[in-house]
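CHAIN AND CONFORMATION:
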Amino acid sequence: MSGNLYYDMTNTSSDNCTDVDSKMKRYYLPAMYGAIFIVGVIGNITALLVYLLKVRPWKSSTIIMVNLVLTDLLFMISLPFLVYYYVLNDSWTLGITVCRFARFIFHFNLYGSILFLSCVSIFRYVAIVHPQHSHKIRRKRWGVVSCVLVWVITLAELSPILYVLDTVDLNNETHCSDFASNNPQRVWPYSWVLTVLGYLVPLMVVCACYWRIIVELKKGPHMGSTKRVRARRLIVLILTCFTICFLPYHVLRAFRVYTRLTPGMNCMLDQGIHVAYIISRPIAVLNIIFNLPLYTLSDDSFKQAFVELFKCDKLKSSNEKTTGDDLPTHNQQYKQEE
């Protein structure tokens, strides 16, 4: 493709800007993506082995967790390409198809993870707030249906991104533009569609579910019971992913595209927003790290299976003590939650 005036350009003629954004891309992004790759590959392959080899029987929550693992591992495939690209100082040598694949998988992991975490929240809401239906929601078919819907919805909402992403030839180098650095006229409306449908709507669903769960958990005595404590930790973990990982990226992406649409934008402000946006991109996929303790919090059987697979005697004795705690008599069916 020929030169593209939308690639990484500011809206000012000022010469006072630094190249801090270029340095962030060259040093910060490879370091962060490299660390995420190492932890993500080791953690998610381990989790997948535990699920496939030891966790029995499978329930709906197990199927959702396995699909979350597969989504994270799919993203791991693209990370070496991105690390290689940024180490070469924004010089892309792998062609437009691989460029689009790497950028597409970033967003697929992001929005797929959001939906899978939303499914976890909905299933947990049913198990705790409506325990009379918990035996139905644990059936494997509901996990299969939920995962199929997540994959279909994510692919549908991201299919237009393949027409937005492009490579750019500039100064005798080819660049693989990130989403917000493509043509802002096309990116601006589509980014809002992704933000509203892919992030804000699931966030409202998750918040509504956990508000009702918190109200339910406050009922009755024995607030310190093991399973109730675990349920509260799960709430904190998922809300942390939504607020710490996903929120900054969506806010800063909007600012990044807006500054590129606005003529006469101050150069330092433009680059400051760009740097903040660069910082937010690896943070957006740090949920891959947060997902690892999620597997333990979502189901007792995972921790037990992990202990059995890796013969962790100390963990085994601790786990037996932990799982020996029962819920109070209030709302007995809550003991059957996923």
Q: What stands out?
A: The chain is about 75% helix and 0% strand.
